[in-house]
Amino acid sequence: MMATVEFDSIGKLYGTTRAISNVNFTIADGEFLVLVGPSGCGKSTLLRMVAGLEEISEGELRIGAERANEKQPRDRDIAMVFQSYALYPHMNTRENMAFGLKVRKMPQPEIDRRVDDAARMLEIEPLLERLPKDMSGGQRQRVAMGRAIVRQPQVFLFDEPLSNLDAALRTQMRGELKQLHARLGTTMIYVTHDQVEAMTLADRIAVLKLGVLQQVGTPAELFDAPANRFVAGFIGSPSMNFLDVTLDGGLKGPDFLLDLPAPAGTATIGVRPHDLRLAAQGVPGTIALIEPMGWEALVHVDSNSGRLVVRVESQDLAGLSSGAQVHLAPEPGTLHFFEAGPDGLALR
Ligand SMILES: Nc1ncnc2c1ncn2[C@@H]1O[C@H](COP(=O)(O)OP(=O)(O)OP(=O)(O)O)[C@@H](O)[C@H]1O
Ligand SMILES: [Mg+2]
Hints:
By secondary structure, the protein is α+β, with helices and mostly antiparallel strands. It has 2 domains: about 5-225, Rossmann fold; about 240-340, CATH 2.40.50.140. It has helices at about 45-50, 95-105, 110-120, 135-150, 165-185, 195-200, 220-225, 230-235; strands spanning about 5-15, 15-25, 30-35, 60-65, 65, 80, 155-160, 185-190, 205-210, 210-215, 240-250, 250, 265-270, 275-280, 285-290, 295-305, 305-315, 325-330, 335-340. The protein is globular and about 75 Å long. The two termini are about 40 Å apart. Bound molecules: adenosine-5'-triphosphate and magnesium ion. Adenosine-5'-triphosphate binds near residues 14, 39, 42, 43 and 45. Adenosine-5'-triphosphate (ATP) binds near residues 17, 19, 42, 43 and 44.
């Protein structure tokens, strides 16, 4: 079954407030697409439009190549999993998972087969007779996923399904979700504001800011070639460092950049913390803070151009502490250039 999802000039207005502007892109059949962006950027709005829970103000939404704008949620062949598990409190796991199928008048043997299959896949067979109140958050979220899986939909929609879980469980469930996708091969749209989740789960990531799509690409494309400064700062942890510089045939700014040929005007240079190193020559600065992370540390250095974060292997930290004078240099070929300003486009 074809289950592409196409956003064709999609816009959303709540009254006169614009939440989504002219979104255009296509999610391939079987793709794991992660929608990411800061709080309030419109992720849930876009997802709810796919689900049919929110009216589409502008453009056309196509699911499986068919116009879906006017389709009722129940006719869209989609299953959604929310942050709040929204399980029926008086139903046990089996009943919660079976409920949607019962409503659709599916024969009981088929319901039992699907529930048992999903329970096995999610390793919740021992919980089938339990009520939600007698389960942990992680177990409840598994049941909520089970309830979506038994539907065998054309598209799964996830809205921050892991954000109520503690860090360890979130990491574990993240891995399981990726395996689940590999196994089912169904199109999935997954909303998160966590760029690590986006990087680890996605076939492709779509970055939203204030309702405007910034870039769609593989995690590697967004990391290696961000389209603008916003994407560059959002993808990657710790964040890219930015330096404002004046380009004047060459570059006036931090010492290590002075020989670069460049167009005239102001611009922003971006350099990722792992692309910087402590060196004998380079941008001078003072260590403000060292954050040990085990085998490496994040060293925060105050330079004339602002704060720079550099990743340093712990073994190379000997003798360094806050207040020490150091120099920073980038690995060759690792600098990113952007037009000036917080939304500056990448200069290539
Ligand atoms: N029912 C509504 N009426 C008016 N404005 C709304 C409504 N729902 C959402 N908005 C606005 O639309 C914008 C996008 O909201 P949305 O919930 O899609 O953001 P989000 O990216 O999911 O954020 P979060 O990460 O916090 O969940 C926000 O400015 C929000 O205030
Ligand atoms: Mg949201």
